[in-house]
Amino acid sequence: MNFHSFLPPLLRDAQALGRLGTGRLLAEALTTGAVAGGVIGAFRLLYDILLDSSAATLRSADMFSAGTVAGIAGVLLVLGLLAHALLRHEPLISGSGIPQVELMVLGRLPAMRWARVLWCKFVATLAALWAGLSVGREGPSIQMGAAVGMGVGRVFHDADETNLPRHLVGGAVAGLTAAFGAPLAGLCFAFEEMRAPLTLPLLLFVAVAAGTAWLVVSFCFGFGLVFPFAAVPWLDWRQAWIVVPVGLFSAVLGAGYNRALMGLTLWEDSLRRLPPVVRSLFPFLLSGVLLYAFPAIVGGIGLGVMDFQDGLRPLGLLALLLLAKIAFSCLCFASGISGGLLMPMLAAGGMAGACCASPLLAWGLIAPDQLPTLLVLGMAGLFAATVRAPLTGAALVVEMAGCHAVAPLVVLTSYIAALTGSRLGVEPVYDSLRRRVLERRQSGQTGAKS
């Protein structure tokens, strides 16, 4: 008889922790968090430097002179070709990287070549962000963090493949924490979205890795809040009903977003005669066109969430910005270029919150200083509706905006959006992408995006 199976789960976890060695586990977690925090912190710092330099150059240039147009076109072409070459060199860096990591944790994809994935993902994502594509850093940061975690396991000579999920999950959590300065959201992501088993050794590993990564980006690199609102006021009891329409609107928008994203991605998959390089270069070309035609939605230099906190804009203009941002984000992602979904999704969520706030402000149902509260609720709602991970979305937005006082409202909006999204029958975005990665792998296609 196996008496081990009758032990309480906590006691079994304690025994497992003893067998692993607490000191060794803590050393691996600290190293994973420190290295992931350093890599992602350097990535964020380098992107900020490149973005500031580009913005200053564009402000001082005659945008319609032949030289400027040719220079912008040339830079975008070079960045697009670089991103495409890296994708061909390492197909695993396509898209956000989150579904690939989740499938590795589940044992349904082979382990990555961690060093190659790390540097290719770093450079390719930086090229896409610098070119103004509407992609995010969070998915790439999660994949880079997972690569770091796997590398740390190899450095510590941990050859036991049963420990690989721990290194992948711990590194992924450290990567998410470093990307957003959100350690609690990282922990929620591990156990809610990645569905990692909640055991004492894994909880200890990811908590230490997340905390270390947060310390590195906060104190070594000096990164603060991603959304530093001056204030995010509470809604009083007469305004509490507002979370319901915001959550419902986020759910409907999230369902449309998921359908559009997967529809465009699968449509581009079906274009077998389209050369891969053309597919990769398209969003770079589109970014150049939008720089002149609709710069408000171009990544990096366009309107961000913080730009909507100070004033009332016409609802029609906000709706146009929202739809254009979602369309550009979906087109960028469908190309397969390295880049994540969450930052553009949060930007769209902020615009959705602004759309909800516009009539409420006009009718006097909220005060002007409560506009940031609606932006926060919109971000959390769209994340929860799209990813279907309400705790992760709520924790992420609260930590990114530092709005702990309104956390109950954020959590309630997230759950309304997530539950309504489920009732609408649209699959969570990462579930769809995981299935697609496996289908492409089974059919022998390379460069599967996610």
Structural key phrases:
450 residues, 70% helix, mainly alpha, disordered N terminus, globular, 0% strand, 17 helices
Protein model, in words:
- Residues 1-8 have low confidence and may be disordered.
- The longest helix has 39 residues, at 22-60.
- The chain has 450 residues and is mostly helical.
- The chain is 70% helix and 0% strand.
- Helix 3 runs antiparallel to helix 5 (114-130) and helix 14 packs parallel to helix 16.
- It contains 17 helices and no strands.
The largest β sheet comes out as:
none
Mean model confidence by pLDDT: 90
Give the amount of beta strand, in percent.
Answer: under 5%
Which residues sit in consecutive blocks of at least 5 with pLDDT less than 50?
A: 1-8
State the total count of DSSP E strands. Answer: 0
Q: How much helix is in the residues? A: 55-70%
Secondary-structure topology with pairs:
Elements: H1 9-20, H2 22-60, H3 66-89, H4 98-105, H5 114-130, H6 138-155, H7 164-180, H8 183-193, H9 200-220, H10 243-270, H11 276-293, H12 315-334, H13 342-362, H14 371-387, H15 390-401, H16 407-423, H17 429-442
Helix pairs in contact: 2-5, 2-6, 2-7, 2-9, 3-5, 3-11, 4-7, 4-17, 5-6, 6-7, 7-8, 7-9, 8-9, 8-15, 10-12, 10-13, 10-14, 10-16, 12-13, 13-14, 14-15, 14-16, 15-16
How would you concisely characterize the structure shown here?
This protein has 450 residues and is mainly α.
